[in-house]
Amino acid sequence: MGDMNAIVVVCNSLHLGFLGAYGNAWIETPHLDRLASQGVVFDHHFPENLTTLPTRRSWWTGRYGFPNPELGWTPLEPDETILPDLLWNQGVRTALISDVPLLRETGMGYGRGFDDVIWVRGQGYDPLIPANDSRARGVSLDDEPGLRLPPDDEPEQQELWKTRWEQLLRNRKVLKTEDEENSGVARTVKTAIDWLDRRKDDTQPFLLWLDMFSPHGPWDPPAEYRDQYATIEPDEFESDDEGNLVDEMLENEHQIDIEDVPVLMDVPAGAVGDVLTEAELFRLRRTYAGTVTLVDRWLGELFDALERMGRMEDTLIVFTSDQGEPLGEHGYVRRFRPWLYEELVHTPLIVRMPGGKFGGGRHQAIVQTVDLLPTLLEFFGLRHPKDAPPLHGRDILPLIRGEQTKIRDYACLGMDAEEFAIRTHMWHLVLPLVNDPEEPRLSELYRKPEDRWDQNNVIEQHTEVAEHLELTLRRFVEALGRDALDDLFPLRDVARFSQ
Fold first, then answer.
1. Is the pTM above the cut of 0.70?
2. Are 411 and 422 in contact (CB under 8 A)?
3. What does the record give as EC number (predicted)?
4. Structural domain tally of the chain?
């Protein structure tokens, strides 16, 4: 093992269409753009099991779990072999620095195994400031128009969101998060820089897992970021086919004076028209865009610190996100349903090798969250223990070095064991497993890459393709149940369905 280090930077709920490296031309993300120019951008990266907690399990075990409800939004089992377990006796120091309150919840176990664990408290509905804290005296939902309770005929939902938002306001008041330096992303990045500074003279290799809640909602960035894109003329949002938002919604946006629309900092997951109006959705997108820019600004602080320390020369940097963020593309916001559309399932992956080696390009291989663990093991020169559960993911370093062109022909994924999907370069098949009588779901097929945001279901025109993809997906799930993924590797050819 060499003297190399690795830093994995994770964002929660980062919409791919809001990043410059993935085609957006109107949101400022210069620091991530710089990382992309020095690294390898993977254009086809997908989770396997959504959302927040299941994706961390995918990253840390290197194994698929999407068909199994027990491997979903559930605690890590004490005997599950996870990433820090594989490094603790191999001379690699591990650290988890995170402001994701969902990871910190009692009994979930997502902080175990790391040598250093630092929780940066106070993001979202994190129960940091209790109701009887005198510092939060006077906090009232009536004073915050950016929060809107569910309808009166949903008393349980009303009480749930009232509790969440009162917690949010208490945290905001005490932490003074309206100041940029006190925002969650700023405090988390500064904590990481402090950790790195303390280790600047230590020669022991390290893995730093920097897990950031932003740009996950609630979207309450400092005012300058909240309003940064509010006054842009709507036509400036239309960058190109790869970077714009949904066309039919943009047409309506031209008739809206966005500056007169109330700013919503948080909404319950739900349908456009129920939890917010179309006009409020357009304004919310701008707030979200400002939050993405805030994240980028503080990642710039991290990258600058790494340059100052000389760590850019001996450190692997991975940037990714656990999931996207539905923002009205299919008529709803947040994870309202387990609907596996592009805005949720297509996630960024940028890998910068030490010294920027092999950087400056894009890769078209289909990769998934399960590939991160075997890649990190290979980077540190380690072998997966024979007595540990076998890895399902594949090392992507040969792709970066140009030694391979692909590691799989398709990505299989799911959410809540209620909906599965399979993605190739040319097709995206969505397969519902649970039929809600009030909102029936049928299988859907989308042509890629031209239908980027899954707007034109072509399953009736391509029934043979859909049948083949569904059979492939079901065989994958069956092999997964037998833990026999070698049956699916080496790759099965689906080229005749890719034209």
1. yes
2. yes
3. 3.1.6.1
4. 1
